[in-house]
């Protein structure tokens, strides 16, 4: 049974690498006036090293990262201020884990064609995630389901367009 958490909404900006999670999440949090968490910052050093070497993570690797993110969701929701986090959240099981905290969790799935994501990743400098792991992310990706709280947004537009769409969706009455 889920624990009941009193507090504000936690928005998870999800998608594959290169979809704009960090950019959109940061700007969305600023617009909403809530804290932002870069989900990648919670990866243990071993996960970062594994990805940097071109090896995809498996569920065992992701377990401590997901536990830390789940705790952040729980703590942030109970703070009464809410927050926004970037997190790939590639599998429904991961998203379900966040919702089992009892928090008001809402997802913004940044949908993006593989080619566009690869092009964006090729332009990034200094990121630990190599472009060669993109296929493994798409292979793992279980897009947001209609019964999950959130919205799917085409992430191919400019950051301003994508953030605008996310802000409208998050702010829509009844969501």
Short overview:
With about 180 residues, the protein is an alpha/beta fold. It has helices at about 20-30, 45-50, 60-80, 90-100, 115-125, 135-140, 160-170, and strands at about 10-15, 35-40, 85, 105-110, 150-155.
Strand order of the largest sheet: 2-3-1-4-5
H-E string: EHEHHEHEHHEH
N/C terminus separation? 23 Å
Biggest sheet record: 5 strands, parallel
What portion of the residues fall into strands of 2 or more residues? 5-15%
Helical proportion? 40-55%
Reading off the top of the CATH hierarchy, the class is best stated as Alpha Beta
Keywords:
175 residues; alpha/beta; five-stranded parallel β-sheet; disordered N terminus; Rossmann fold
Write the layout of secondary structure elements.
Layout (H helix, E strand, L loop, with lengths): L9 E5 L6 H12 L3 E3 L6 H8 L6 H20 L4 E4 L5 H8 L5 E7 L2 H10 L10 H7 L9 E5 L4 H13 L4
Parallel strand pairs: 1-3, 1-4, 2-3, 4-5
Task: Provide a descriptive summary of the structure in words.
This protein is α/β, with parallel strands linked by helices and 175 residues long. The protein has one domain: P-loop containing nucleotide triphosphate hydrolases (Rossmann fold, 3-Layer(aba) Sandwich). 45% of the residues lie in helices and 14% in strands. The protein has a 5-stranded parallel sheet with strand order 2-3-1-4-5. Helix 1 crosses helix 7. The chain is globular, with a radius of gyration of 15 Å.
């Amino acid at each position: 049974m889920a624990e009941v958490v009193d507090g504000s909404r936690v928005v998870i900006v999800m998608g594959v690498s290169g979809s704009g999670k960090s950019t959109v999440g940061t700007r969305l949090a600023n617009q909403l006036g809530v804290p932002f968490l870069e989900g990648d910052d919670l990866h243990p050093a071993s996960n970062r090293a594994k990805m940097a070497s071109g090896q995809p993570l498996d569920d065992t690797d992701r377990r401590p990262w997901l536990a830390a993110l789940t705790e952040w969701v729980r703590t942030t929701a109970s703070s009464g201020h809410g927050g926004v986090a970037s997190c790939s959240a590639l599998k429904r099981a991961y998203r379900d884990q966040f919702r089992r905290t009892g928090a008001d969790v809402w997802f913004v799935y940044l949908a993006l064609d593989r080619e566009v994501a690869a092009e964006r990743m090729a332009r990034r400098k200094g990121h630990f995630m190599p472009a060669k792991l993109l296929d493994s992310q798409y292979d793992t990706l279980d897009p947001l389901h209609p019964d999950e709280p959130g919205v799917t947004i085409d992430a191919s537009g400019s950051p301003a367009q994508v953030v605008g769409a996310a802000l409208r969706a998050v702010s829509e009455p009844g969501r």
